Amino acid sequence: MAMTLPRLTADTLRTGIFEMTGIAIEMLGQTREAFLQYSPSAAGRVAVLGRELHLREKRLTDHVAMQLREMPWSLGLSEHLAFIPAAMERVGDSIELLMRCIEGIHRDGVPFSEKATTEILTLFGREAAMLQEVSAALQARDRGAIPRIQAAGTALQALCDEAALHHQGRVIQGVCTPRASSIFLAMLDDFREIERYIRRMTVDIEKALPPADASQAVA
Q1: Are 172 and 48 in contact (CB under 8 A)?
Q2: Among 153, 24, 156, 21, which residue's Cα sits nearest to residue 81?
Q3: What confidence category does residue 213 fall into, taking pLDDT thresholds of 50, 70 and 90?
Q4: What domains sit in the chain, N to C, each tagged with a CATH number?
Q5: Alpha-carbon span 101 to 104, nearest angstrom
Q6: Are 8 and 75 within 8 A, CB to CB?
Q7: Is the pTM of this model over 0.90?
């Protein structure tokens, strides 16, 4: 016998996604700390958070899909948020890939230059700020967060391109080992992937926001 789920409201859907965003932010912060000072327990915490994110995505996505089949339009504009849990799960997957790179760095004693370390830490900070803006857009329905996230994403992709160019110079100069090169470029790809999924989320979040108050436009 199928279990009857409580009706999902627009607010409970937003809350569920907001909580998933918090998990992703915590995963990113733990991964950054592991990059600075690795410990097996840090990797374990990120893995646990990743499993929690996967579980929440499945439950929330299944709940939304079931309800929309039975009660179309029951979520109103928030129906546009239906696929954000899956996108947030992909963010978590990319963070776990970052952690695997970090495990390799510390397990194999892979040297990173001061410049490469600074670039990676900058990317961690930029993406944490973007996820915080996603939280603001969801919780406070802050329409102004959307262009800020999009601008930050464009800047982050440019920063990845710049970091890759600097990296090429280090390789040519012979100051970067092949193993370090492989890991650094993989981390850049992971940061880019996180940004791409965040950018996709902003499109759906913007669609789910109510129209701007017309009275604000009156002089």
Answers
A1: no
A2: 21
A3: low
A4: 10-210 (1.20.58.220)
A5: 5
A6: yes
A7: yes
